[in-house]
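Let us work through a complete example step by step.
Step 1: write down the sequence.
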Amino acid sequence: MLSFPNAKINLGLNVVSKRPDGYHDIETIFYPIPVKDALEIVFCGEKDVFHSEGIPVEAAPADNLVMRALRLLREQYEIPPLEIYLMKGIPFGAGLGGGSSDAAFMLKLVNTLCALHIPDERLEELAASIGADCPFFIRNTPVFAGGIGNIFSPVSLSLKGYHLCLVKPNIMVSTPEAYAQVTPQAPSISLKEIIRMPVSQWREWMVNDFEASVFSRYPLIGEIKDYFYQCGALYASMSGSGSSVFALFTEDPGLCLQEQFPDCFVWQGNLP
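Step 2: predict the structure and record it as tokens.
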């Protein structure tokens, strides 16, 4: 059984407050995008076998979130040995949720292949124990995320037909360090209101609180955002705590991103 775990971008990200447990409450909008991995599972012999190709996975196979998702299900359900094939196309350290997506899609694949009949609500609970943004990929539709990024409410938003450009430089941004450089504060206007505005107005109102400190430490990330605006983007932003930067255009601007950013991961295409 084959599926294609997709990435997400953050439309705006406000760090609202620091919690007593050391985590931060945030507000953001998760939006699915068609940058994808491939994940296939089949029944096999006496023990699980894991294969990974594409973008190298640094973690040991046993530590991969796909295998963690499988172990989580096995704590409650009888699941026979599986052979797992993962083709990585979503870059790491990008703020795109690639690992979380793989784990969530693994939960859904095993649920279907083994006829476990686990409802989405329960799958979301299981996914939450893997990572804060992992439950988003169970339903995989645009949501407003609060709490630590794990409390979802649906939003009416479609970017269908917009052209998305994405560049991920060879930079790893430490998420704890990014949070340490931000002074939490409630936004002056809610993202739920901003997304009702035309996309052309988002530039004025929609912010990512991580950008100021990340751009000062890694100027290339800020330069990518500036480049997109120079090329006529309606809206451009860093996704999550970085390091990828995306831009929305009304139509294909004809950019040669790989030539402009030769050492970076790049992707562009129309949103479905």
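Step 3: interpret the result. The longest strand covers residues 6-18.
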